[in-house]
Write a structure and sequence with these properties.
Elements: E1 13-19, H1 25-35, E2 40-45, H2 55-75, E3 83-84, E4 88-89, H3 90-95, E5 102-106, E6 113-114, H4 115-122, E7 126-131, H5 139-147, E8 151-154, H6 162-176
Parallel strand pairs: 1-2, 1-7, 2-3, 2-4, 5-7, 5-8, 6-8
Helix pairs in contact: 1-2, 1-6, 4-6
Amino acid sequence: MQKKLPVPGTSPKLTLACAVPKGSRLDEAIDHLTQLGVECIIPMQTERGVVKLDDARADARLERWRKIAQSAARQSQQARITAIAPVTSLADVVHNSKNYDLKLIPHLTGERRTLKEVINAARPQNIIVLIGPEGDFTPAEVKLALDNGFLAVSLGETVLRVVTAAVAAASYIKLASGN
């Protein structure tokens, strides 16, 4: 007898654009984010990102990441599989973010609001969060995002690695949304 999968709730659709970290750490992030019910993950190239993927490597990794998402969705009994987009530059992610009603960029410097404050005030239906590389976003990347409607937020007082930041942001948004 096959188990019945839960129907997705009414919580906001969440997209995470995540800088590609070293090694297989993005594999881990995709697994965890899929279990949390993230709608879409966009592997992202940033200025300070140490991993630069050529087309062949990016295609191979994309296939691997999609298989990881399928497996994680099955394991966590998700009704749908998290979409994994091709590797995209931060500039392209920012310029293609017009359809989101809440756009967030957690980073380490300057004026930022708490994630709790922003989520509670907005009650959004479609959210995108940019997760930067280990060395944070460059000032130019932050400016580009802010100039395109992203809100600067903080994920707390400690500096988090890419995978931890992605999982923390997704977990909090899901929790604050009642899911």
